[in-house]
Amino acid sequence: MASTQSNLYSFENADALAQKLRPYVLQAQTAALTRHNTFRLAVSGGSLPTVLARALLATSNGTPEDTPEFDKWDIFFADERAVPLDHPDSNYSLLKQELLSKIPAELGVPTVHPIDQKYANQDADPQELADLYQEDLMRTFASKDSVKLPIFDLILLGCGPDGHTCSLFPGHDLLREKDAWVAAISDSPKPPPKRITLTLPVVTSAIQIAFIATGSGKKDIMKAIFDSEEGHSLPSTLINRGAGEKVSWFTDFPAIEGVSYRRSTL
């Protein structure tokens, strides 16, 4: 069974979910700025940038705790595809289109860490791309000789219908990676095949982790993650089990139809 400590929140629709995701993210921002005056987060692709934009671009009530301070954000990617930054498959392109290009000037400009454009194609070696991205992490979080793992303030993830998250897929050898911060994958079961991803130890070491899962197409995998012993080895379940109460799931009603795991409240 998945850890009983993970938080499962469910909302009637996407608007209600976004309304609750906003204070969750901004509380993580406040805590991070108190710790080190920077908010270090990693994001995935899929539907996440759209939901994140809906949450963060909503009108603020004018209080500091309800205001994104984007100029203090360091945004990394939990995974990325080895494609040009303007490619439809690029997580960077999706985040730019949905959120970054729409941030009001008065809220500041975040520091965004895309992959190295020179290696962002399916003909290049994705290991080069992973190594360069790890070096970028080291410049922000200190060298690998100084710290065992980078500690993100927040990692925002999606969950695929097969239980994958980031570019960590069920049964893949990368789930056993213990040393690298960023790993390369050349045989992704979901196209495009060449990608990079944060490794499982990096994800589970984050201070807070949030999954966003919506739609009836997710209900079977959500049952496997939360209610089934058969789902214990799925990547999303491994994060649940490895990070426990640091993990929060933001879902809508259709995504958890039939799931018996207890609901949390915000």
Low-confidence stretches: none
Quickly give the structural class: alpha/beta
Sheet with the most strands? 7 strands, parallel
Cα distance spanning the termini: 24 Å
Write out the strand line-up for the largest beta sheet, numbering strands in chain order.
1-10-9-6-2-3-5
Number of helices: 7
- Strand portion: 15-25%
Shape descriptor: globular
From N to C, what is the helix and strand string? EHEHEEHEHEEEHEHHE
Round the mean pLDDT to the nearest integer and report it: 94
Q: Using DSSP, what is the number of strands? A: 10
Describe what this molecule looks like in 3D:
- The chain is 30% helix and 17% strand.
- The protein has 266 residues and is of the alpha/beta class.
- The strands form two sheets. A seven-stranded parallel sheet has the order 1-10-9-6-2-3-5, with helices on both faces.
